[in-house]
Amino acid sequence: MIDIRAARADPDAWRAALARKGAAEEFDALLEADRERRALLPRIEELRARQKLKGKPTPEQLKELKSVKAELQALEAELEQVEARFQELLDIVPNPPDPSAPDGFTEEDAVELKRVGEPQELGFDPRDHLELGQIDMERGAKVSGARFAYRLGETALTELALYRFALDRLVGKGFTPVLPPVLVLEKAMYGTGFLPTDEVNLYRIERDELYLTGTSEVALAAMHMEEKLAADELPLRYAGYSTCFRREAGAAGKDTRGMFRVHQFDKVEMFVFCLPEHSREEHDRLLAIEEELVGELGIPYRVVNIAAGDLGASAVKKYDLEAWFPTQQRYREITSTSNTTDYQARRLDVRFRREDGGLEPVHTLNGTAVTARVLLAIMENFQDEGGTYSIPSVLEEFGALRKGAAGPG
RNA sequence: GGAGGGGUGGCAGAGCGGUCGAAUGCGGCGGUCUCGAAAACCGUUUCGGGCCGUUAGGUCCGACGAGGGUUCAAAUCCCUCCCCCUCCGCCA
What we know:
With 409 residues, this protein is α+β, with helices and mostly antiparallel strands. It has helices at 4-9, 11-19, 24-51, 59-92, 129-132, 137-144, 153-172, 186-192, 217-222, 279-297, 343-348, 372-381, and strands spanning 111-116, 135-136, 150-151, 176-178, 183-184, 203-205, 210-212, 227-230, 236-245, 264-274, 301-305, 317-325, 330-339, 350-353, 359-361, 363-371.
């Protein structure tokens, strides 16, 4: 949620920034609800003050108190409605974008920052991951439905090596490795901003009122919810490894072949809690780490700066790292890192204490280290004419075999 | 799954219809004392919000696991839910 007092103090600047996310009207409505709320509050507080009494009331006082109560109940009912509307708007007004996020509302409005590595001239028709790896989508569909994959044999080992490689590198950079829960309470989903807006993309366990997380970001961010951190323990940097679950509700018909877009995949995620004055540099640092990992693997990629209107509600700025996929003849997203400043921290109520004693929300950031998609990029980019692919040597020590086997197992 | 106990300030722990945002102890912070420190003593020490004020601050409201109810009035009484602890059973 946004800082309503800051917004109230400088409404024009906030409105202009939010307009770039297409949320100017919601912002206006929020300010209006805020005004109504603040008109009502003093009246209620005054009545509550009158209601207070030490000791037993006299009959005359009792009569007076009963009339105060009636008046109070009417105003409180009114306030309840106003507050509900205020809260509803506060839930949906997004974090205003950083000035350095480009204008625009679509994927195409993203600005390319750089390209690294040359896509290889293969000189033959490239095979995709289904032809190169031991991946069984048919049985996945039989057992779990569309968009579920079995990875077998060497493919399974190589995928695991990839996660182990990423965790190893992150631990070397001071990240704490975490195996988090993947089922979380509603308040964790709400606090991280996936609810109420992304409800349709979440798997929900109705019987136990739990949600399956679409990224370990949720459990990592919520780990410190309702906590007061000490300034000197920041930044806290975590590297979570977990399976991720997504309904992909808006993606019908998109990326339907293979395991490029599935309901269940695995991911190593970076998550940082830091001081507000450090979040920009932390964001650049997360991007640098993503580049380093993909660079070590030798995958050709580009970096894009996502347009303001294409950002999620929480992010003020987002970089995507896109790998070259020979069969698609284009760059596709493999990692993404966002600075969510104090937006998540406010919702989750994660604060820290300054030297002078003041409590304020921390800043939070997230970034993908690797996902199964990186494996697909490895397969496609390092394949040979015979239908096998070579594996980056850095993965060998983590249990990947030197050569991938050809064709499904 | 069964039986019992409990959730109050940074921690421990009282309070069990009004004078309680809350005794007391510990811890923290400031001070006195001291060459310095310890001890002792004095003071201070929750969070959120509204309004007033340029600031310093003032003032009022709310919060005793969460939500609802009773009452003029709830930490205190009633209901529902959540969480924690102990024992037993079950599973790993």
